[in-house]
Amino acid sequence: MIDFLAAAIRIATPLIFAALGGILSERAGVFAVGLEGMMLMGAFSAVIGAWASSSAAVGLLLAVLGGGAIGLIVAIVTVRYRADNMVTGLTANILALGLTTYLLHILAGTAAIQVDPLGPWPIPGLSRIPVAGPLLFSHPPLTYLAVLGCAGLSVLLFRTQTGLLLRATGENPEAVFVAGADPQRLRMIAVISCGAIAGLGGAVLSLQQVGTFTDGMTGGRGYLALASLIVGRWHPWGAAAACLVFGAAEALEFRLQGFGIPVSSYVVQMMPYLIAIAVLAGLGRSTKLPAFIGKPL
């Protein structure tokens, strides 16, 4: 059970990063449909950076820049030129899929790149606590960073003036303008930041979990992160809890396959997405979106 729960936390980590980025974007009034492309570009950039420099730190920096670049494209098209959020996000996902595949073959000349994955960082003393130690304090570094990100974003959104202005941009941008701030600028910053944080989520997937990049390796996780932030009502901790549920579903998938249960692997792989659809259908219209989301300024 401890191994299962620890695996659920590890699997949920990239989803948490993407969901945190999506919260920033949607709180500011821009649908975060492009999370999949931002994660994919982050995963690609992280592995390319680590492979070329033999440094995980360089890989993480490039992941932030790569995801932020997709965020910048989305921000310019949706905020500056007022294009439809949904169409732009889906286009960004397709762009990232094609671009990463092309660049992978150009830069590496292969269909996959292998790097040494980030190993666990047991916290001295705490990692030896029975049950809690292996479950909570023996993870790779980016998992701890995801928890800190939830705490930091909660403080930013609900305890600072910047967070108040950001939330107001998605609810009542006229009030933001009256307060002396530029809602368009806030939206741009939020969407670019969304891309940077989601890029870290992609780095977790490629650089921490598997140590490689392959074509389309995010496999729809950006959409799971999008579902998580909706289920979590655009709150960092709520979104993180939803990500853990999806992580547990995927961890269960691996356990069922290991037990040799006579169920098709394709059916088992659909479990996280079926859960997401069921939960979103159950929420229905009870979910209250930011009032000005998707509307041009």
Automatic annotation (TrEMBL):
Q: How does it sit in the membrane?
A: Multi-pass membrane protein
Q: Which CDD domains match?
A: TM_PBP1_transp_TpRbsC_like
GO MF annotations, alphabetized: transmembrane transporter activity
Q: Provide the leader sequence positions.
A: none
Where does this one sit in the cell?
Cell membrane
Record keywords, A-Z: Cell membrane, Membrane, Transmembrane, Transmembrane helix
- The membrane-spanning stretches of this chain are 6-24, 31-52, 58-79, 91-115, 135-158, 188-207, 263-283
GO CC annotation: what is one?
plasma membrane
- Kindly give the InterPro entries that the UniProt entry links to this protein: ABC_transp_permease (IPR001851)
Q: What is this protein called?
A: ABC transporter permease
Q: Which organism is it from?
A: Acidisoma cellulosilyticum
